[in-house]
Predict the structure.
Amino acid sequence: MNIAVFGGSFDPPHIGHEEIIKEALKKLDIEILFVVPTFLNPFKKTSFASATKRYEWIKKLLKNHPKTKVIKYEMEKTCQVSTIETIKHLIKTYKTDKIYLIIGADNLSSLSKWKDYKELEKLVQFVIASRNDIKIPKHLKKLNIHANISSTKLREEIKKKYLPKSIANEVMEYYTRKKMDKRIEKIINVLDEKKAENIQLFDMRSKDYFVNDVVIATTLGQKHGIALLDYLKIELKSNGENHFNTEPSDEWTVIDLGDILIHLMTSQYRAKYNIEEFLSNREEKFGNQT
């Protein structure tokens, strides 16, 4: 049986990955194409989306592509797995006559650093997916790929047009929310470290509100509120927050980050205006609508 293997982080899967799959099915003489999401790329320290989430996306992406199969081998190891280990697993599990290993052209320069590269070279025939203007040696089999996008660039600025239609909406929502969660975590950590009290977070997405999230914290007094504002400005600007409008006052300071609103209030003002009750009621009113 002739097979092809296409592994990667797929963090997130994009139209370039989809094009590689389509081209491989057209151009390679194979019975099946195995797509292998990593648990963690051997050359990386972290992943943004979990292995389970990436596996689910690839499953949906392959739903309408015959002769494909996504396998959990690497993600179930819950550690970094070398390519040669996966290839040996497939050889042991399936009666393989020929194995095509699909890699991106950007991997050519580091290929010799892969674990047991010389042995791997004997077990597979490399198939190179073109990338930008990277030169591919003539003796190597090539897939002409026209989508010029990378997962790294997408994580920096997620754009729907670069995502496969079958998973675009949920991938967009996941990465947008994940970035938001990290920003909110930073805000809450700063407030907590600087002794703000009774910190509350309100998720206002789909609640017909003008921001996605609201953070409320109680200050220990007027001077503490101003100090918290200064700490937040320093910490958040160093974290990449550029949109920073404030309405400072001794009793109640409002910080507008565009999609996140932060209220720093003295205990007296918080009790007087009780805006958390207003936000909670809004969550109940709009929370079940789609």
